[in-house]
């Protein structure tokens, strides 16, 4: 795509017309450089990624040096330093572009997890034991097959939880609360 920037407005390249705005964003820093233009360029995640890749690539450093062979060494070092700084800006912008914003469903999930954690913190030993027993009874009722007497995975899980609670109630409670805190985070 970068190869065709200078051809984007020519009639023989009709296939590039839909990308006209993208070419404008990509070409602007070449002719009119300022922070606003730079930020607009890096806000496009693809451009930010490509620039970061270029800034980190040893071959790109060699390419840059070869383009400025006629300039003095100080100019080349300043250019390389500026590319490195812009690479950091591009990388930070790229990471910011890829941060997912919480959706309404995510917020609801977090609220439910917080509610579950609050219940676990307030619950007494008898309530927890009763809930574990109720889970086991529900698992028994929802057996898929009555032909064989094997426990389902749900039953095994509920029975295991109940047995762990009977053996080491405090330890199991701490593990459950820690797990729910982790989910909330």
Give the SSE map.
Elements: H1 20-31, H2 35-43, H3 45-56, H4 58-67, H5 73-97, H6 104-122, H7 125-141, H8 153-167, H9 169-184
Helix pairs in contact: 1-2, 3-5, 6-9, 7-8, 8-9
What is the helix fraction of residues, given as a range?
Answer: over 70%
In sequence order, what are the helices and strands, one letter per element?
HHHHHHHHH
For the biggest sheet, the summary is: none
User: Rough shape?
Assistant: elongated
Provide the residue-averaged pLDDT: 76
Counted by DSSP, the helix tally is: 9
How many independent structural domains?
A: 2
- The class by helix and strand makeup works out as mainly alpha
Low-confidence stretches: none
Count the strands? Answer: 0
The radius of gyration computed from the alpha-carbon positions, rounded to a whole number of angstroms, is: 30 Å
Alpha-carbon distance between the two ends: 41 Å
Strand content bin = under 5%
């Amino acid at each position: 795509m970068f190869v065709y920037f200078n051809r984007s407005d020519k009639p023989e390249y009709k296939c590039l017309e839909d990308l006209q705005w993208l070419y404008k964003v990509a070409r602007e820093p070449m002719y009119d450089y300022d922070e606003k233009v730079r930020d607009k360029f890096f806000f496009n995640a693809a451009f930010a990624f490509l620039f970061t890749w270029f800034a980190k690539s040893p071959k790109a450093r060699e390419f840059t040096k070869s383009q400025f062979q006629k300039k003095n060494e100080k100019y080349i070092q300043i250019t390389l330093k500026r590319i490195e700084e812009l690479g950091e800006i591009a990388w930070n912008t790229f990471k910011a572009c890829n941060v997912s914003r919480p959706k309404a469903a995510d917020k609801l999930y977090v609220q439910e997890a917080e509610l579950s954690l609050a219940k676990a913190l307030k619950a007494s030993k008898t309530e927890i034991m009763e809930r574990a027993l109720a889970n086991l009874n529900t698992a028994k009722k929802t057996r898929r097959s009555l032909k064989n007497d094997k426990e389902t995975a749900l039953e095994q899980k509920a029975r295991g939880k109940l047995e762990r609670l009977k053996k080491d109630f405090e330890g199991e409670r701490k593990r459950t609360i820690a797990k729910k805190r982790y989910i909330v985070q």
